[in-house]
Amino acid sequence: MIRALVIDDERLARQELKNLLQNFEQIQVVGESGNVDEALDLIDKENPDLIFLDIQMPGKNGFELLDEIQGNAPDVVFVTAYDEYALKAFEVNALDYLMKPVDEDRLAELISQIDTKISKKKAQQEAPVIVDDRLDITDQVFLKDGEKCWFVQLEKIRLFESEGNYVRVYFDENRPLILKSLNALTDRLSEKYFFRASRKHILNLRWIEKVETWFNGGLLVILKDGTKVEVSRRQSVKLKEMMAL
Fold first, then answer.
1. 35-39, 71-75, 112-116, 145-149 — which is least confidently predicted?
2. Mean pLDDT computed over 146-164
3. Does the pLDDT value for residue 128 go beyond 90?
4. pLDDT of residue 93 exceeding 50
5. Are 39 and 70 in contact (CB under 8 A)?
6. Parallel, antiparallel, or unpaired for β 2-7 and 27-33?
7. Are 232 and 218 within 8 A, CB to CB?
8. In order of start, what are the domains of the chain with their CATH numbers?
9. Which of 148, 104, 110, 111 is nearest to 26 (CA)?
10. Half-sphere exposure in the Cβ direction for 60 (13 Å, CA)
11. Strands (E), 116-178
C-alpha cells in the first residue's frame, strides 16, 4: 500500500484528485493540506511514501516545500495548472508532474511506475539483511539552481565536479551548480555505479568510454561525451581493481 498526501491550496482540486485516487487500490490517501507549513508538519507526522504537490500556492510554493523537508523526502508528483511553468521548471524528461485537470489514464500510468519503485524499496527494507541505503542508479534526484529545477535519474548524471563549496552536476546539456560538498555526495551515492576519481570529481562508471595511462601512475578516463577526467594515483589503483576480471 502506498501512503500518500495531497497538497494543494484549492479544496476542490484536492477533492477531485482524491476522488480519482480512490480508483487505485494501491493508494491510500492519509492526509491533505492547503499550505506548505501545514504540509511539512503532516509529512513529519505521517511519513508518506508519496505526495501529490501543487506548485503555486499562497506564501511558499511547492519547490520551497521540498527545500524544507528534513530527512529522506517522499516521492513527489507535481500537480499543476501551469503547463509553461512546469516545462520551464523541469526542462527535460518531466515525467513526474500532472496537468490539471488530471487525466485518469496518465495518472494510472504514473501510479504503476511509482508502485513498482516503492514496492522494491519496501521489500529491501523488510529483507532480513543489511541493506545499503545509498541512492541507486535508477533513483531520481531533485536539483535546483536559481530558478531552474530538475528531476533527474542518476544514470543520466555523468559527472560531479567540485567548485569550492558547490558541486557542478553534468547531465544532458545541463550543468547546474548545487550547494553540496563532494564528500556528502560520496556518502549518498552507490559505489557500485559512482567512483570518486579524485578530490575534485565523482564519475558515473556507466559513462566510461575508455581509460588511458596518465602521469605519475595515474589514469585518464574519457567519458562517452568526450569529457576527460584525471584519476589520482591512489584512486587509479582502486579503479583498476574494480574493473579487472
1. 71-75
2. 92
3. no
4. no
5. no
6. parallel
7. yes
8. 2-126 (3.40.50.2300), 147-243 (2.40.50.1020)
9. 111
10. 17
11. 140-145, 148-153, 157-163, 166-171, 177-178
**In the chain, which residue ranges form alpha helices assigned H by DSSP?**
11-21, 36-46, 62-68, 83-90, 104-126, 182-188, 233-243
Distances (CA, A) of 188 to 43, 52, 131, 137: 22, 25, 13, 11
**Single-letter code of the amino acid located at 36:** V
- What percent of the chain has a predicted confidence (pLDDT) above 90? 43
Cell of 141: 534526484
Which pLDDT does position 86 carry in this prediction?
A: 56
Distances (CA, A) of 59 to 12, 36, 37, 50, 128: 19, 8, 9, 22, 44
Q: Decide: 189 and 154 in contact? Cβ < 8 Å.
A: yes
> What are the pLDDT digits (tens) for 76-88?
888 888 766 555 4
Predicted pLDDT at 231? 92
**Sign (positive or negative) of CA dihedral 201, 203, 209, 212:** positive
Element (H, E) at 5: strand 2-7
Cα–Cα distance between 40 and 34 in angstroms, integer? 11
pLDDT of residue 97: 76
